[in-house]
TrEMBL record, chain B:
Belongs to the BAF family. It holds the Pfam family SAM_BAF. One of its GO terms (biological process) is chromosome organization. One of its GO terms (cellular component) is nuclear envelope. SMART domains: BAF. Its main location: nucleus. It comes from Perca fluviatilis (European perch). This is Barrier-to-autointegration factor. Keywords: Chromosome, Cytoplasm, DNA-binding, Nucleus. It is found in: Chromosome; Cytoplasm; Nucleus envelope. One of its GO terms (molecular function) is DNA binding.
Amino acid sequence: MSQFVENPAHLSKFRLKSDLVAHDVALPPSKSKKEVYVGLHLQHIGQKNAVDFSSDEEDQVQDVSDKEEDTEMPDPSGLTDDDLKAALLELGVKAGPIVASTRALYEKKLRKLLQSNGHGCLNGVEKGVLYSDSEEEEENGEEEDKELGSEGEKEETVKQSDQAQQGSSQVELCFQNGGFVYPQCFLLSSRLFPSGSQSVMPDGESSMSSQAFSITRMVEEMESRRSLSTSSDTEIELNGSNVQKHWSRSNRLDMPIVDTMKNQSLYYTPKASPYKWKMKLTQEPVKDTFKDMFPNTDATTTGIYATRRRPIKGAAGRPVQYAYPDTPVSPTTLEKREVERRLVPIQIQILVFLIVMCLLYLIYVCVEDNSFGPSVALLDSLYQGSDSEEGLLLQAETQDVPALSGQE
Amino acid sequence: MSSTSQKHRDFVAEPMGEKPVMALAGIGEVLGKRLEEKGFDKAYVVLGQFLVLKKDEELFRDWLKDTCGANVKQQGDCYGCLKEWCDAFL
């Protein structure tokens, strides 16, 4: 709805500031009172509004765009360090010190946030705007067609770009393809529709949103705009895949600008690359497991570890022609066998064990012989196999011994 | 071990002292030259910038890209290198 402004005194200081910037009025020192801004506003803009009343649509658009800008924040370049910091804080970003080297970065960040906010606010329904920029023109164009019923608009741009010089037309298309929505919104601005991309345009541009539309002027503004800020990173990111599609349609890829822009658009895909890195990392461990399983096998030239399958004997009616070696064994079994060869076999171990046990038992018996009588029988049984003389002598001895032991 | 380069490991192993900016991981000859032209001739100057940006990854990457035209991998390597150095020594 048209906002027929206005008593500047009712506007906020920020709004006044942004309006002044939009109309290329030199800003007073930031600490000035509101009255100064009001005065300047009345002085410059008050008159201009009267002049601009020729086209209601423009005013509506301008007001809406200004209003939208104002609800977020004004142009980042025009802010002081403190204001910039405050603006970032309002958007939820805790900024560090804003010094010479960091200022540009924070301004860019603020712009990015403003653009994303603008998209979010205005285009709640037009979600395509957020997701793809290259399609945005088409979407906007389509919606334009639906709502306004004018298809000529888009065709005009194409025609104009065709007619324009090679360089400028390519640049324009490059910018279109690379994610700048400005050309499109320039055309759309002349219509009623306050597209989301509208809010993307800083005030300086909207001020020239004009009846006097010319491509060369647009290109100049593009270049100046470009030098100040690169397009939103989100758009570039999302554009990564869409840019390719769009270029194939346009068929004008000769300009080096295209290449640099493509490089730029591809540079800033931090989200894509970590996924690739993760993929690579997960792939690496898989390759090493086979080697881990069989560490001792000799490396073949081809790296293929394969053992011959034992063929079926007499398969297909053929006799066994080839005497295959024993069933293939795994390297671990081979190791076991080697170890076993070196050690004493189990059978012999058991035999030795038994002999040792017997000997120990005999010794135990001998030791206990003094106190226990029945051990004599055992001794006798042991000495049965010996010669008779020896056996008799032994018997005599053994008899004497028990006698002696008995006496005690 | 994660995928860090030898350069990264060398840098993170000891205080940077007066090492040139090309000692940073991800910063080779070309990028190093560009940084030096901008005045960042020593690694500690880049460290200074990193700290002023409060060790924020996104901001630091943007700054690297704007200053010397580093690509995503180089940005990541440099950021990781400095971050780890800070974790160890700062």
